[in-house]
Each structure stands twice: as C-alpha cells, then as structure tokens.
Design goal:
This protein is mostly helical. The protein is 73% helix and 2% strand. Helix 2 packs across helix 11 and helix 11 packs across helix 14. It is globular. It holds the Pfam family Sugar_tr.
Length: 425
C-alpha cells in the first residue's frame, strides 16, 4: 500500500522537478562528451601532430647542416607560449584565456602548411630537385649553389645508409625496397642500429620526466600552497617559465663549448639536489618557528630547478632524437619515441596524487630526487657526446667499432674529414 501511494507522488514530482533534473543530467553528459572530443582532437591533431612533428622532422633536418649551428629547438621556442599562458592566467579568468588561445592552433596549422618535406625523405623517394629546394628553404631561402656540397653529401649518406640495410637494394640512382611495407619497417626497427639508440632515448625520456618533475606541474599551485610559500603561486609559475627560457638561451650559448654531455650531467645533478632539498624542507623545516625565512626555500628550489631544466634536462632527449637514429628506420623510431614520451608523462601525472596520498609530499620529493640521482648516473656512464659529430660518427657509437675516447669527447663540427675511429656509412 505504501508503495502504491508513493508512485503517484513520484510521477508528479517528475513532471515538475524531475524534468529539470533529467535535463541537467543530459546537459552534463553532453558537456562531458563535447569536452572529451575536443581534448582528443587537440591531442591527435595539435599535440601529437604539429608539436611532435616539428621536433622529429623539421628540427631533425636542420641538424644535418654541420656548418650552421642549430640555435633553438621548438621545445625552447614553445616556452615563450607557455610563459604567455601563465601571464594570461594571472591576469584573466580561464574562460578568457581559452578564448584567446583558441586562435593558436589555427595559426600553427596555417604555418605548418608552408613547411616543405625533409630533404632526406625526398632524397630517399628520388625527388632530388624537391630535396634541393627544401634544403635551400631550410638554410634561409639561399641559392642552390650555396647548398650543393651539403646536398651531395646528403645524397651520398642516404644512399650508403640504405644500401647497408638488408631490406633495400640499389637500383640506378634510386632505391627500391624488397618485400612489403610492414615487413620492411619491421626489419628496420629490429636492427641493432635502431634498437640500441631507441633504448637509450627511451631511458633518457624516463629520467627526463622524473628530473623535470612533470608529474607535479598540473597540481603545482596546490602543492605550493601546501608548502606555505610566502608568494603568489601563479607568480611563481610566471617567474619559473622566464628562468626556463633563460636557461634555454644559455644552453644555446654554451652547447658548442662544453657539449651536451657535460651540461646534462651538471644540470641534472643540480636539479636532483633541488628536489631532495624540497623534501628535506617539507620534512623538517616547514613547521619551524625559529627560522621563518625558511618558507622561501621551496620557492628558491623550484625556481633553480626550472632554470637548470631549461639549461639541459628538458632539451636533451629532443636534441638526441634528431641525431642518433640512422636514416633507415628514423621516421618510425622518432614516432615511437614521441608517443612513448607522452604515455610515460600521462602515467606519471595520473598516478601522482595516488602515490602522494600514500607516501606524502615529502616522500614524493625523496622518490623523484632519488630517480633524478639515478638519471645522473645513467647519463655519466651511457650518454655519448654528439656535439660536433657527423651522423656517420654517431651511428658508429652504437656498434662495436668506435673509439671510446672519441665517444665521450666533443667533436669539431666545422671539419669535413672523419675523426679517428669513425667508419664510413
């Protein structure tokens, strides 16, 4: 009886308030669906398509010129955009920031349509005239005569590298691959020339995500509040991005003098100390009453960390991606590397809060600090020096036929002749 008496009441309430509630639930689900589709579209088209493509193709092509030093990667250039984002978030609400930034993908896509294919790829496809024009474009719209020597060296290197690959045979001026496309890609990816540098780059990326503490960045404002920093957390973000940019510029200035290896070991070591220092502060000094100035320590540690991340830690993997893979298998290897990087970053961000609830904020600092120390050890024993080396020399570092002393020393980029111990490819 009670149930029968309740039924008319529930039907009446549905006609009045239930409809509103149902519409609200539908609206909420619809909004979630639209947001999800927008995020997936951004991830596929903008993030993975434009962002990763610039690093692995255009910047890689620029690195092939031994006489003109590459002064900035797009990872460095993108920090200006991140800095603008932080400034906008400090000045406006998130809706206004989203509206302003919605123009960026359109501008980026338009600019990308004007970028030619990689000269190396065009050479492999026997499109020599297009490759020559692409090289002229990459060198600053110069005359073909100014890049002819470099172009001929590219042609020779491409042919020699692919001729050594078992899945290709030389036919006239071009190259015709035996077997199907998937079989060819599989053979290229399972060769030691690709697997060994791929292993190195993936390990470096893992330590890069640990050293740069990328997992904390989406939650950084809340974490700074937990540490009771005496300064606006959004202002800290702006200052840190400025320091990242300054560090990147110093990387450009000192790279050719000291090389990637020395800079990476120094920068990653200091970053590890900053992370561990923040952990010590969180454990012993955060609630201290006898030293109120200690509240500035996490801010100082974070700003120092960002400066040295810009100086090397963030840049190093992307610099290596452009240099250590052979032509045969380079495209797929770069794609696997970039995709794996984002999977690692996503896993670390998603797991951060769960692990923090388990071991506390100070425990996270000790965990990541220890990982950063292990990263420094790995760089010291395993990272070859690629600065000033030709692509042929770098490829030999992943074989048994190389000079170990040369592997860890800086080469002379201006020299055309080979260094002792290098092997023609």
């Amino acid at each position: 009886m009670c149930r029968q008496a309740e039924e008319p009441e529930s039907l009446d309430s549905w006609s009045e308030s239930g409809t509103v509630k149902n519409r609200y639930n539908y609206s909420r689900r619809s909004t979630f669906a639209q947001v999800l589709v927008t995020l997936i579209q951004n991830w596929l088209l903008i993030e993975m398509g434009l962002y990763s493509a610039m690093i692995t193709t255009v910047i890689g092509a620029l690195h092939l010129n031994p006489e003109e030093a590459l002064s900035m990667s797009d990872e460095q250039a993108s920090w200006f955009g991140i800095f603008v984002m932080y400034v906008l978030s400090y000045l406006f609400d998130w809706r206004s920031v989203a509206l302003i930034c919605s123009a960026s993908p359109v501008i980026t896509f338009t600019c990308m349509t004007q970028i030619p294919e990689s000269p190396t790829w065009l050479i492999v496809k026997n499109r020599y005239e297009d490759a020559r024009k692409s090289l002229c474009w990459l060198r600053g719209w110069v005359e073909p005569g100014k890049v002819e020597e470099e172009f001929q060296a590219l042609v020779k290197h491409a042919k020699d590298s692919l001729r050594k690959n078992k899945s290709a045979q030389s036919v006239g001026d071009g190259l015709i691959k035996e077997g199907g496309y998937l079989k060819t890609q599989f053979k290229e990816m399972t060769s030691r020339k690709v697997l060994l540098p791929l292993r190195l780059i993936l390990i470096v990326f893992v330590f890069r995500e640990i050293t740069t503490f990328s997992a904390i960045r989406p939650y950084l404002i809340g974490e700074l509040h937990k540490l009771r920093t005496p300064i606006n957390a959004k202002l800290v973000l702006i200052i840190s991005e400025v320091l990242v940019f300054i560090g990147a510029m110093l990387n450009v200035a000192f790279l050719h003098r000291f090389g990637k290896r020395k800079i990476a070991i120094l920068a990653n070591g200091i970053v590890a100390l900053c992370i561990l220092g923040t952990g010590v502060y969180s454990s012993f000094l955060q609630d201290s009453t006898w030293m109120p100035q200690a509240a500035w320590l996490p801010v100082i540690f974070w700003l120092t960390l960002n400066f040295f991340c810009g100086f090397s830690a963030v840049l190093l993997p992307w610099q290596l991606v452009c240099e250590i893979f052979p032509i045969a298998g380079r495209g797929l290897a770069c794609g696997i590397t970039a995709g794996t990087k984002y999977l690692i970053q996503s896993a670390m961000i998603k797991s951060y809060l769960f692990i923090e609830n388990w071991i506390s904020l100070s425990g996270m600092m000790y965990l990541y600090g220890t990982g950063a120390v292990l990263g420094v050890i790995h760089l010291y024993f395993c990272l070859p020096e690629t600065e000033g080396k030709t692509l042929q020399q770098i490829e030999t570092y992943f074989t048994k036929n190389h000079d170990r002393k040369e592997k860890y020393s800086i080469g002379k980029a201006a020299r055309v002749d080979h260094h002792p111990g290098s092997v023609d490819c």
